[in-house]
């Protein structure tokens, strides 16, 4: 059993997923990755993420709906939404991570989680 905290990443772009996995691993997180909201939701019974990074533009269930479901199921989870959309269009979350994702921006947000 790992002592590292869990990060849930919901991202349909393989390149963005690989980037987020690498950044989060470096920051000391285990990562559960899902390519769509349905896959993430199906894992809810078995996980307890400290942080979630959710792309807003997902196939099927939207990222905004996925973020709402994460918030409802894991109220203590630090919720980060990520997108190419204008930040004014982001749903309510703890933080925004506009694309293209920059490692320093994610590190800064994760420092908030650790406080």
UniProtKB/TrEMBL annotation:
<keyword id="KW-0597">Phosphoprotein</keyword>
<protein>
    <submittedName>
        <fullName>Transcriptional regulatory protein OmpR</fullName>
    </submittedName>
</protein>
<dbReference type="Pfam" id="PF00072">
    <property type="entry name" value="Response_reg"/>
</dbReference>
<dbReference type="InterPro" id="IPR001789">
    <property type="entry name" value="Sig_transdc_resp-reg_receiver"/>
</dbReference>
<dbReference type="GO" id="GO:0000160">
    <property type="term" value="P:phosphorelay signal transduction system"/>
</dbReference>
<feature type="domain" description="Response regulatory">
    <location>
        <begin position="6"/>
        <end position="114"/>
    </location>
</feature>
<dbReference type="InterPro" id="IPR011006">
    <property type="entry name" value="CheY-like_superfamily"/>
</dbReference>
<dbReference type="InterPro" id="IPR050595">
    <property type="entry name" value="Bact_response_regulator"/>
</dbReference>
<feature type="modified residue" description="4-aspartylphosphate">
    <location>
        <position position="55"/>
    </location>
</feature>
